[in-house]
């Protein structure tokens, strides 16, 4: 597939191979891999292919690796997130489009605090690649953003992605870090481990995303989210906002969690919001 013949034909062959391997978006992935090698986006690549360009060196190897279900982002070394391009690879969770809405909720709240004349203090717990923290720091320049990550491999990617954003990265446990900020945080946002203990059907997730970023513990995957909600109540100021992603099957468990904590006086309100596909995906809760 490399070096000889036309790129247009190679793209068809690659898309067929990826489709046979069960890749969800075979044509797009075939084009993105070729574009990665040529330094072109998909629009420019289409023109290049129509002009009879040759197949770039290494294309066959990349297509074979993708057919083995190595994540596309591991092969290209990057993942889009809102307006950002993030460095990702083995050892770090690849950010998903659904999490962009979680980031948006944190950004909206930080902007509201800024509009009220205060400097927003935002904490991204379990930052992983640093996606949410980087989005908040770049889209709300007046915010003070802290990001916490426990695992060294993910922390290294977060350091790359947060460089130059002004966000402050901490290597530590989200359930104990930043004690000095207790009672002062305006927004605590997180895409924590929450997946229930079931075998994931997607090989890219099952084989390549780190388990520590996926599974939340307990029969329902809610052990860590429950602990994080308690930590959020400690760090947030009165009126501060907690934004947390969760599994689509956990809506009732999440509402029950915040209902129980609200009864103890910690939360004034909690609302589950949908992702891009309309599935219940994240909760926003106001500190009372």
UniProtKB/TrEMBL annotation:
CDD domains (alphabetical): AdoMet_MTases
Domain of life: Bacteria
Keywords recorded for this protein, A-Z: Methyltransferase, S-adenosyl-L-methionine, Transferase
Protein EC: 2.1.1.297
Keyword Flavoprotein: no
Domain Methyltransferase small: residue ranges: 119-197
GO biological process, one term: methylation
Residues binding S-adenosyl-L-methionine: 149, 191
Record's keyword annotation contains S-adenosyl-L-methionine: yes
Domain Release factor glutamine methyltransferase N-terminal per the UniProt entry, residue ranges: 10-77
GO molecular function: nucleic acid binding; peptide chain release factor N(5)-glutamine methyltransferase activity
InterPro entries according to UniProt: DNA_methylase_N6_adenine_CS (IPR002052), HemK-like (IPR004556), N5-glutamine_MTase (IPR050320), PrmC_N (IPR040758), RF_methyltr_PrmC (IPR019874), SAM-dependent_MTases_sf (IPR029063), Small_mtfrase_dom (IPR007848)
Record's protein name: Release factor glutamine methyltransferase
Organism encoding this protein: Galactobacter valiniphilus
Gene: prmC
């Amino acid at each position: 597939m490399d070096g000889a013949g036309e790129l247009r034909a190679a793209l068809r062959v690659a898309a067929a191979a990826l489709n046979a391997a069960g890749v969800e978006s075979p044509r797009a992935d075939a084009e993105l891999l070729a574009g990665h090698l040529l330094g072109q986006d998909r629009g420019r690549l289409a023109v290049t292919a129509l002009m009879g360009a040759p197949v770039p060196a290494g294309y066959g190897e990349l297509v074979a690796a993708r057919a083995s279900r190595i994540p596309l982002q591991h092969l290209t070394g990057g993942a889009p997130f809102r307006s950002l391009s993030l460095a990702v690879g083995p050892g770090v969770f690849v950010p998903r489009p659904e999490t962009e809405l979680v980031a948006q909720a944190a950004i909206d709240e930080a902007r509201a605090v800024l509009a009220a004349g205060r400097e927003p203090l935002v904490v991204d717990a379990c930052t992983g690649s640093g996606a949410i923290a980087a989005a908040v720091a770049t889209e709300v320049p007046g915010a003070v953003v802290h990001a916490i990550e426990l695992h060294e491999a993910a922390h290294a990617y977060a350091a790359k992605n947060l460089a130059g954003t002004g966000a402050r990265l901490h290597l530590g446990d989200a359930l104990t870090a930043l004690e000095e900020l207790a009672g002062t945080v305006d927004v605590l946002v997180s895409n924590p481990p929450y997946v229930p203990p079931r075998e994931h059907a997607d090989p890219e997730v099952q084989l390549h995303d780190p388990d520590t970023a996926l599974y939340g513990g307990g029969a329902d995957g809610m052990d860590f989210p429950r602990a994080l909600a308690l930590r959020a109540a400690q760090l947030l100021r009165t009126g501060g906002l907690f934004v947390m992603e969760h599994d689509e099957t956990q809506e009732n468990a999440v509402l029950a969690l915040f209902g129980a904590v609200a009864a103890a006086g910690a939360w004034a309100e909690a609302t589950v919001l949908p992702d891009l596909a309309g599935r219940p995906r994240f909760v926003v809760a106001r500190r009372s």
